[in-house]
Structure formats: structure tokens, C-alpha cells
Recover the amino acids of this structure.
């Protein structure tokens, strides 16, 4: 019953938590809401964990919880600006080190979430370092390591999630790190494991196909793109990648069919959109740039979007614009240097002096940043 409730609560609202706190008799047993909160947190259901704490506070005190709990609740709702304002109020009114263990923990978890949202991965790790290990969300820490290019640490942290997360999902996360690091054989190994874990999920087929292609095996790349599309005809990136490969193999009409399918499937401005590449490959370069800029306008602080624009501009021969976009990506926190080195999309600018200077500056800055958290990384 507890596990079922946690699963339900992962998609629930605070209202459901309040109902749970006042209707234990209907459920037939009295739940320890704080224990449920801890268990939910261990399963990655961070939002549910906060809802249970809300319910516990309301049940025991009849009042709203402390500011620290509220700030964390706001970050789980995605209201980071409100959470940040509340955290600054806490910082101005209280001595953080004098908070009790529970409030101190939720203050630092909330601060970590805000830092991650702002692409401040160094200070996210600093905040998480203030939290007792058992309460640290492993995925958040792993994602910080991954964004900082610390792939070995990211992989180790993702590997600790196998007991509490779907194995296919975890294997894909690990594979993504290996692929970004340029270790394609290891990436493929984990993508294949993910397929065995979740055979109807398109993501590992896409990842395996891309890794085969990056390693120079177009035949196996095409095989896995086709396998992915055999289980999911709605995954736009698979059509895009297959279309690009077909174009490279001289099968232009089939490639155009795939690109047009991308346009049919991908109509929404979102983080995972690939419509701009299909437009570019169909010769509609102005439309491609318009779509790319709309994605950036939708999420102007996402460094990955500017890196995507750099890739798009490179492929369109707009090399100065590509370097400018990459500069913004770096300034907003993009730190996947190994991926840049391995990514052939940005090959056209790699010998340009402006790129070399930019890459060298931010890579040196990155190494200095990492030195500031050596105590955490040991």
C-alpha cells in the first residue's frame, strides 16, 4: 500500500497530501508521513516527499510548514523564482547553521534545486554537500557531475540508482555519459542493456544508432534507427537521424520523407525539438533559424539551446554566428567539453582562431572552478 501511495503521490498535488493526512481511517491504517516522505525521496519522488511533509505539518500543528520546507516545495513545483526569493529571505533573517537538522536539510535541498535551475552546478554541489548522504537526490548530483563533464563521477552516481529506478532508464543515463565522453563502445553496451530492460522505448535505439554512427559504423547505425522506429513511430529524432544517414548514403527521396515526417511530428516549441534540423536539411534555412530562435526565446537561460544553435549555424555555413552562439552557451554554463571535441557538427569552426581562444578560455576557467570544490570531489 505504501509503495502504491508513493507512486500516486509522485503525480499528485499538496491537496492530495492533505486529504491523506486527514483520512487515515478510510485507508485502514495510520501512516507515518515522515517515513513515507523519506521513502518517497529515496525512490526519486521528491515532490511526493514534500507533500507528505506538508501533510505531517498540517496534521500535527494545524499550521503551514516552515519557510525552508515551503521553499523546497516551490522548487519541486518548478516555481524557482519564488523559491529563490524565499531562500534570500531566510538567509537575511536566520543563521542557517543554527537551524535544526530537518530545516537545514530542506534549505540546502531547495538552494541546490535553484542553483541547478540556474546552471550553477558548482554551488548546487556545494549545497548538496551540506545534506546528509541519505537525503541527497542521487540523480541531481549525477546531473551536476554530468553537466560539469565529470563523467566518471556521474556514472558512479547513476549506477547507485539501479535499486530505486527503472533499469532501462538508468542504463540510458549511463550510456549518455559514455557517449558524451566519446566512449562509444561503452555507450552502446548500456544502450543495448536498456533495450533489454525496456524494449518498447525508443530512446536507447536512438542512442545506440547515434553511437554507432559516431564510431563510423553506418550499417549498424541504420539498423538501430530502423529498430527504434519499429517500436515507436512518434519519436521525431529517430526520423531525423535516419534521414541524415540516408542522405549520406545517397537515398535522397527516402531522406526527404523522413525529414517531412519530423515536420509533421515536431510542431511544439520545446526543449527536445529537432524541427530546425529537418527544416535546414530540406533547404528551408531561414525557417530553421526562426524555429531555433523561438526555442531560445522559450527558454533563454538554457545553455544547451545556444549550443544547438551553434551546431545548426555550423551546418549552414554561418561560422561567425556559430561562434557567437557557442560563446553564449559557455557564458550560461555549458561545460560539456568532451562532447564538443567529439561532435562533428561543430567541426567547421574548430580551426577558427576565435573558437580556439573561446574554448581555451572557458576550459581553463572550468578547471579553476573545479579546483574550488576539490574537497567535495575527493
Amino acid at each position: 500500500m505504501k509503495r502504491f501511495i508513493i507512486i500516486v503521490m509522485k503525480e499528485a498535488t499538496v491537496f492530495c497530501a492533505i486529504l491523506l493526512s486527514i483520512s487515515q481511517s478510510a485507508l485502514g491504517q495510520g501512516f507515518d508521513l515522515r517515513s513515507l516522505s523519506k521513502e518517497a525521496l529515496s525512490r526519486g519522488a521528491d515532490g511526493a516527499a514534500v507533500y507528505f511533509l506538508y501533510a505531517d505539518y498540517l496534521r500535527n500543528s494545524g499550521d503551514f510548514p516552515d519557510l525552508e520546507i515551503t521553499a523546497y516545495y516551490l522548487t519541486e513545483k518548478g516555481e524557482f523564482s519564488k523559491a529563490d526569493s524565499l531562500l534570500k529571505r531566510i538567509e537575511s533573517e536566520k543563521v542557517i547553521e543554527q537551524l535544526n537538522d530537518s530545516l537545514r536539510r530542506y534549505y540546502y535541498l531547495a538552494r541546490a534545486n535553484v542553483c541547478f535551475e540556474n546552471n550553477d552546478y558548482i554551488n548546487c554541489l556545494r549545497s548538496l554537500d551540506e545534506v546528509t548522504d541519505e537525503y541527497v537526490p542521487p540523480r541531481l548530483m549525477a546531473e551536476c557531475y554530468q553537466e560539469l563533464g565529470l563523467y566518471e563521477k556521474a556514472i558512479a552516481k547513476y549506477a547507485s540508482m539501479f535499486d530505486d529506478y527503472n533499469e532501462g532508464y538508468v542504463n540510458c543515463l549511463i550510456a549518455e555519459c559514455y557517449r558524451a565522453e566519446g566512449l562509444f563502445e561503452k555507450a552502446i553496451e548500456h544502450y543495448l542493456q536498456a533495450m533489454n530492460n525496456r524494449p518498447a522505448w525508443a530512446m536507447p535505439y536512438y542512442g545506440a544508432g547515434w553511437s554507432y554512427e559516431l564510431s563510423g559504423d553506418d550499417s549498424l547505425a541504420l539498423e538501430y534507427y530502423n529498430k527504434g522506429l519499429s517500436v515507436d513511430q512518434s519519436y521525431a529524432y529517430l526520423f531525423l537521424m535516419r534521414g541524415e544517414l540516408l542522405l549520406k548514403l545517397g537515398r535522397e527521396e527516402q531522406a526527404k520523407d523522413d525529414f517531412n515526417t519530423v515536420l509533421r511530428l515536431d510542431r511544439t516549441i520545446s526543449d527536445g525539438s529537432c524541427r530546425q534540423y529537418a527544416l535546414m536539411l530540406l533547404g528551408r534555412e531561414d525557417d530553421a533559424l526562426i524555429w531555433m530562435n523561438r526555442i531560445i526565446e522559450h527558454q533563454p537561460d538554457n545553455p544547451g539551446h545556444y549550443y544547438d544553435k551553434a551546431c545548426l549555424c555550423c551546418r549552414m555555413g554561418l561560422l561567425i554566428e556559430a561562434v557567437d552562439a557557442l560563446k553564449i552557451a559557455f557564458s550560461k554554463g555549458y561545460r560539456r567539453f568532451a562532447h564538443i571535441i567529439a561532435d562533428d557538427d561543430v567541426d567547421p569552426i574548430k580551426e577558427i582562431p576565435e573558437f580556439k581562444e573561446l574554448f581555451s578560455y572557458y576550459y581553463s576557467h572550468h578547471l579553476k572552478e573545479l579546483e574550488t570544490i576539490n574537497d567535495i570531489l575527493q
About this structure: The chain has 24 helices and no strands. Residues 276 and 288 are 4 Å apart (CA to CA).
